[in-house]
Amino acid sequence: MTELYLITPPRLGPDFADALAAALDAGPVACVQLRLKEAGADEMRRAIDALRPVAQSRGVAFLLNDDPRLAVETGCDGAHLGQDDLAAHGGLARVRRVLDGLSLGITCHDSRHLAMEAAEQGADYVAFGAFYPTGTKEPKARADVEILRWWSELMEVPCVAIGGITPGNAAPLVEAGADFLAVVGAVWQHPDGPAAGVRAFRAELA
Ligand SMILES: Cc1ncc(COP(=O)(O)OP(=O)(O)O)c(N)n1
Ligand SMILES: Cc1ncsc1CCOP(=O)(O)O
Ligand SMILES: [Mg+2]
């Protein structure tokens, strides 16, 4: 089964909590990641305080991008870290300890080695990508669907696919065994709004 993993847009408008609620109510959505690359500490805490209850009250996990300590402090369900973030926070083993029983997701780009290492050290999921061209971020790597097939046949730890995923190109990722599809643009930039964006994935994930 493949589930939707929603990542927030890079900048949040004043009504974003309502937009998030509408998107989640159009679900199922398994997880929300707050990803604000340009926010300062205060803005980040305000966003967490406003959005975390929207997700958690609906039984949707709320993860924070990049900052495991803040995730713990603010009651998030876990954190997602990239390879540079791991280095900045003292390495994977240390981050695992900081998060204790909370969820830890790790960016592994297109690397089987990084994914094995992450799983061995207690990651709760590994993320591969970018699978398709994306305007949301300049990706460090392009990944092939075969890495999802290889991983899902070999390993128990769930895998996330990310990068340019839309309802129109999701099928090969689902077929190859992705446990989650992580999406930004296809939901938040959907012409009929985010709820329609989430609904559009339903048929692909069934
Ligand atoms: C689910 C998921 N996968 C990958 C990423 C990318 O993380 P990272 O490489 O640290 O890049 P930034 O998101 O921090 O720009 C992600 N955030 N979520
Ligand atoms: C954060 C991130 N990491 C690799 S691609 C990407 C952006 C995904 O956004 P979109 O779904 O809009 O392509
Ligand atoms: Mg990061």
UniProtKB/TrEMBL annotation:
- Xref: Pfam families: TMP-TENI
Chain ranges of the Thiamine phosphate synthase/TenI domain:
4-187
Q: Provide the catalytic activity annotation.
A: 2-[(2R,5Z)-2-carboxy-4-methylthiazol-5(2H)-ylidene]ethyl phosphate + 4-amino-2-methyl-5-(diphosphooxymethyl)pyrimidine + 2 H(+) = thiamine phosphate + CO2 + diphosphate; 4-methyl-5-(2-phosphooxyethyl)-thiazole + 4-amino-2-methyl-5-(diphosphooxymethyl)pyrimidine + H(+) = thiamine phosphate + diphosphate; 2-(2-carboxy-4-methylthiazol-5-yl)ethyl phosphate + 4-amino-2-methyl-5-(diphosphooxymethyl)pyrimidine + 2 H(+) = thiamine phosphate + CO2 + diphosphate
Which pathway does it take part in? Cofactor biosynthesis; thiamine diphosphate biosynthesis; thiamine phosphate from 4-amino-2-methyl-5-diphosphomethylpyrimidine and 4-methyl-5-(2-phosphoethyl)-thiazole: step 1/1
Q: What is its EC number?
A: 2.5.1.3
Q: Where does 4-amino-2-methyl-5-(diphosphooxymethyl)pyrimidine bind?
A: Q33, L34, R35, L36, K37, N65, T107, K137
| A GO BP annotation | thiamine diphosphate biosynthetic process
Return the InterPro entries for the record: Aldolase_TIM, ThiamineP_synth_sf, ThiamineP_synth_TenI, TMP_synthase
List residues binding 2-[(2R,5Z)-2-carboxy-4-methylthiazol-5(2H)-ylidene]ethyl phosphate. Answer: T134, G135, T136, G164
The Gene Ontology CC terms held by the record are: cytoplasm
GO MF, one example: thiamine-phosphate diphosphorylase activity
Report the leader peptide range.
none
* Cofactor comment: Binds 1 Mg(2+) ion per subunit.
Keyword list (alphabetical) reads: Magnesium, Metal-binding, Thiamine biosynthesis, Transferase
Q: In which residues is Mg(2+) bound?
A: D66, D85
Which cofactors are required for activity? Answer: Mg(2+)
Instruction: Sum up the protein's function in the record's words.
Output: Condenses 4-methyl-5-(beta-hydroxyethyl)thiazole monophosphate (THZ-P) and 2-methyl-4-amino-5-hydroxymethyl pyrimidine pyrophosphate (HMP-PP) to form thiamine monophosphate (TMP).
**HAMAP family referenced in this protein's UniProt entry, alphabetically:** TMP_synthase
Write down the PANTHER family for this protein, in alphabetical order: THIAMINE-PHOSPHATE PYROPHOSPHORYLASE (PTHR20857), THIAMINE-PHOSPHATE SYNTHASE (PTHR20857:SF15)
The family annotation for this protein states: Belongs to the thiamine-phosphate synthase family.
Question: What name is this protein filed under?
Answer: Thiamine-phosphate synthase
**To which species is this protein native?**
Acidiphilium cryptum (strain JF-5)
Q: Which lineage is the organism of this entry classified under, starting from the top rank?
A: Bacteria, Pseudomonadati, Pseudomonadota, Alphaproteobacteria, Acetobacterales
Q: Which gene encodes it?
A: thiE
